[in-house]
Write a structure and sequence with these properties.
Shape: elongated
Radius of gyration: 22 Å
Helix content: 40-55%
Largest sheet: 2 strands, antiparallel
Strand order of the largest sheet: 1-2
Oligomer: single chain
Strand content: 5-15%
Number of strands: 8
Length: about 240
Amino acid sequence: MTTDHFIDRSAISLTSDRLRAIREWAAEALDDAICRITETGRTAVGGGDRPLEFNATASDVAHEALGTLRVWAEHICQHSAVKWPGEQRIAEWARWLDRHLIDLAKTEEAPQAVDEIGDVHRRIMRVIDLPPVPEFVGPCQAPKEGSARCGGVYCAKGRETLHCRTCDVDIDIPTVRAATEAMMSVRRFTKAELRVALLQFTDRPVSRHVIDGWIRHKRITDDGAGRYKLADALALLAERKPA
């Protein structure tokens, strides 16, 4: 810790990691958590869309997160030459604060900021941390002539084998997953479908902002009908992973 910094490099790095997670995907996941489509099976009044379910807890967390990040941005502007950026949303505040952590570190209140930003990060992660659900691995493995066929192979992440009770077939999960990934990688998806498809290959969602950036900078190109190759998106994700 230098003489003009009130938090050390490890605290700055940890806070930067938390802010990066918020801006890259957690803020968007929090938005999704506030209003989710319910699986009631009822038809919404005036149309065929399923109703949205409002999550008051997620809304409260979003309100508190926005307020906390904004307060610390205001604090930086009051104690440095940095100009006020104008009102922002949660992801934008996280991006702005990450860029000005050194300015924050030079203020006596920096340790309190680290604690409060850490609390915001924990609360967001808690409200979007849903119980793990079985993942789609691949299509049904039963012989085509068999009468009993399941709707596809689903299992918890990390499993190597599975016995499908519907089809009475023993399944080698890595083999099925590899075949499915090879088949999917050459397929093309709309922008919305691409984000969903990528979930099968990543530990966390890829934000719409990231995908929009790929398209804007022509790092992925469509086929003329607004569809993008999954393999191209996977290659860009591989570039972002640390060596």
